[in-house]
Structures are given as C-alpha cells and as structure tokens.
Design brief:
2 copies of one chain form a homodimer.
Chain A: E1 2-13, E2 16-28, E3 33-37, H1 44-51, E4 59-64, E5 67-68, H2 74-84, E6 85-88, H3 100-110, H4 115-128, H5 144-156, E7 162-166, H6 174-189, E8 193-197, H7 201-204, E9 209-214, E10 217-223
Parallel strand pairs in A: 3-8, 3-9, 6-7, 7-8
Antiparallel strand pairs in A: 1-2, 1-4, 4-5, 9-10
Helix pairs in contact in A: 3-4, 3-5, 4-5
The structure holds adenosine-5'-triphosphate (2 copies) and magnesium ion (2 copies).
Chain lengths: ~220, ~220
C-alpha cells in the first residue's frame, strides 16, 4: 500500500544543509495501525507530509497504492491524494472565513457529493467529534481543541483509505482525546489504514506498530 | 497582584449567547505558581486572554497591579501589559516573515533595548529552549514544537513579572516538555508569577495551586 525506499528530505539553508529525513525505509500495509514518535524536530511531520503527498522527497522513492508518486503529474497526484488520504494537520489548517460545517464539507465538494448529502455528512462527522452545537462557528470563534476536532471531522468526511493524523489529540484534554482515539480506532477496525504521530507514549502503546524517529532517521521499530 | 471579581465573557451569536466564562472570582498573588485545567472549550484560553489584557470581560471587574484594567486607555493598557506580562499563546502567533531570533527580539524593541543587547538577549533565550541552531529559520522552516519554543523564548525575553503560558508543552515530546517546565519553574523560584494552562494532569500536579474550569466556571480549586 505505502512503500518508502531510502527516502530523504534535505533543505539547503545558505551553506548549511538541514536533513529533515534520511534513509527512511518503510512499508505500510492496508489496514495497519502505526504510531510515529520522536523528539521535537526529529522529522515526524516531514515524514507525514511526504506520505500524504503534500511534500516531495529529495532522495529515494515513494510508492502509494502502486503509483510511483514522483512520476505523477500535479493534477493526477491531487486526484490520488484526495481519493485515498485524509490528513489531520499539526496546525489544523482550517479556512478562517468558513464555518466549522463548511470546512468539513470542503473535501466532499471535491468528491462531487450533492449539497444535501454534504450537509448531512458534515453534521454527522461534527456530532461524532462532539461539536454539534458549534457547527456555525468560524475557527476564530472556537477553542484550540474545538478547531482540532473540526480538522479531524474534515479528514474523516470522505472515509479515506488512509488516515494520517499529526498529533490529533495534542490540543485536547485527556477525556476528549480518548474519545477521539476510540473513533479513529473504530475506523481502523473497519479497514482504514491509521498512521498517527503522537508525543504521548501511552497513546503510542495502543498502536499495533510503533516507529521511533531521531534526527530524521528511524532508530527503533516495534511490532505488537 | 491579579484580582478577578465576578468576571464573565459572553458572545452573542444571532439569537444564542455563548458564555465562555461566568462568575469567575480569582485572586493571584505575586510569585504564585498556578495551573488551570479543564475540558476542551471550558474557557481556559478566554480566562488567560482576559488576565493577559488581550481581551476584555463583558461582566465583572479585573484589577492588575492596582490598575482597574477596564478603565485604562488603549495605549496605557498596552504599556502596562508590555511591562508586566509575557504570554505564550496556544497558537504561538509568530510573525511569519521574521526569523526565530527576530521574533524573540520584537518585545525587546518595544522595551527600548539597544540593538546589540537585543541580539545577545534573544540568542541567550533561544539557547535556553534548545534552538541555538535554528535562530535564522522562519516559522515555516521550523517544526511545530520548535515554533512553540520560539514563542516561549519570546515571552521570557523581557523577564516579565507575570508569565501566562497557554499549553506551553502541548507540541513538545515528554523530554523537551520537562526541560521547558524546569525553565519556567526556575523563573517562578526567582519571583515570576507563573500561570499555565495545561491538559496534562501530571504537569498540573507540579503547580502550587490548581484551578479547574468547566463550562466557563471554576468548579474546583486545590492548594498544595
Ligand atoms: N469569538 C467567539 N465567539 C463565540 N464563541 C466563542 C468565541 N471564542 C470562544 N468561544 C467559545 O468559548 C468557549 C471557551 O473557549 P476557550 O478557547 O476559552 O476554551 P479552552 O478551554 O481554551 O479550550 P481548549 O482546551 O480546546 O483550548 C468555547 O466553547 C468556544 O467555542
Ligand atoms: N522548510 C524548512 N527549511 C529548513 N528546515 C526545515 C524546514 N522544515 C522543517 N525543517 C527542519 O526539519 C526538521 C524536522 O521537522 P519536522 O516538522 O518534521 O519535525 P517534527 O518531528 O514534526 O517536530 P515536532 O514534534 O516539533 O512537531 C526540524 O529540525 C526543522 O527545523
Ligand atoms: Mg511536527
Ligand atoms: Mg484553549
């Protein structure tokens, strides 16, 4: 399903090179549940952005569902990504002028869903993350954790085959965070491939597989 | 030092009223170390923004260092705030076109510090949060946790009397988070009033006093 072969990401900063990722070899099968952990700056978000087709590797090869991603045109890449991947960003990335519900409907518009179906679907997703009475609020009228939950609802709206979640409970209290984890794990049980970045070792322990990054490299892998 | 008397914050949303805070009575003495906890959406950031003079209450009275805050002019309020308070925002709020070091220097420019003193001071602060080799990076060239640490360095740069930190370790791995906590606690030992919002119950237990919010109200207070 997902195959990274000697993948690296380097940034040139004047005379210095920052190696955000180096020599990553990783295979993820359909339906896997994987936690990615590691210190601040170790390359977790960089890895997620490459897997999610939001960024390109500078070294190595990335294959997604038999597509060699570097060979796809911009349009074709966007098509594959929108059809396959749901992404919860570390910084949420909501559109500030749209309400919570309109933000969740956005990927459904791209998926060609009818207006009334979109409306129903976005309401269902927002209810699932506990925001049924915040649907009309814009992002600046929501708390940090509420914005994070809108981002989660949006990522789940298209029932993606692969869900990438970059610290999906980072802004949530323990109780709300556990509700979200149960929601994500239910989806995994139903077949969604779940890859999540977390700083919380207790949450990482729930995954079936744990990958640890340090300085851009995989230094440890555990299968349960 | 800080005195909230029946403070409330209400938002009018069409025909509905959202009570983000209600009937908050709170006194904080100089040098206190307080943790504010509570579920997502319970009013923690709203409380911090009012205490930090970044937002105004719709009910009640807020007194800071003997100033009745609602009575201060916009300019005088900014003066008092810049002289007294350091703020780590839940969403960091860095200026995207400035480097990490320039972001940290900003409050020092307002404080009238000379260029060479600002340069030295910002480098010291960034070193203290472990970012000595990221000083020239702009926010979009930094990881989530690195941005958070720049926001912390910036808040500490003026050695404020009161430090308000809205989830200062939310984007950090456990190890880096504990280093930051020790840095903040050292400052508290030296006299800085420390008020921090956290979702982490273990971190909250380190404070000398814990305030729990639910639905905009203080429902529990513990002194250790
Ligand atoms: N501008 C606004 N208009 C309407 N409602 C608002 C506005 N700003 C905040 N709220 C509401 O006020 C409540 C408190 O928000 P606040 O940001 O203080 O919560 P919080 O405790 O910091 O939550 P979190 O832990 O998720 O960061 C939330 O329910 C939020 O939806
Ligand atoms: N555009 C860029 N230019 C230069 N360096 C960058 C750029 N983007 C990221 N980096 C660097 O790459 C490294 C990895 O960043 P990344 O965001 O993947 O870390 P992370 O593991 O997600 O960290 P965190 O836990 O703090 O979110 C960091 O040291 C960061 O400074
Ligand atoms: Mg990250
Ligand atoms: Mg908040």
């Amino acid at each position: 399903m997902i195959h990274l072969d000697m993948v690296g990401k380097a940034y040139q900063m004047g005379s210095e090179t920052v190696h955000a990722l180096r020599n990553v070899n990783l295979t993820i099968e359909s339906g896997d549940y994987i936690a990615v952990i590691g210190p601040s700056g170790s390359g977790k978000s960089t890895l997620m952005n490459i897997v999610g087709c939001l960024d390109t590797a500078t070294h190595g090869r990335y294959t997604l569902a038999d597509h060699e991603v570097a060979r796809l045109s911009g349009d074709r890449l966007a098509e594959v990504r929108n059809a396959t991947i749901g992404f919860v960003f570390q910084t949420f990335n909501l559109l500030p002028r749209l309400s919570a519900r309109e933000n969740v409907e956005l990927p459904l518009i791209y998926a060609g869903m009818s207006k009334s179906d979109r409306r129903k679907r976005s309401e269902v997703m927002l209810r699932r993350v506990g925001l049924e009475d915040r649907m009309r609020h814009k992002p600046n009228e929501l708390s940090g954790g509420q914005r994070q939950r809108v981002a989660i609802a949006r990522a789940l709206a298209t029932s993606p085959a692969v869900l990438l979640a970059d610290e999906p409970t980072g802004a949530l209290d323990t109780h709300t965070g556990l509700e979200i984890m149960r929601l994500l794990e239910d989806l995994n049980t139903e077949g969604t491939t779940l890859i999540l970045v977390t700083h919380d070792h207790e949450l990482a322990m729930r995954a079936h597989r744990e990958i640890r990054l340090r300085d851009g490299e995989i230094v440890h892998e555990e299968i349960r």
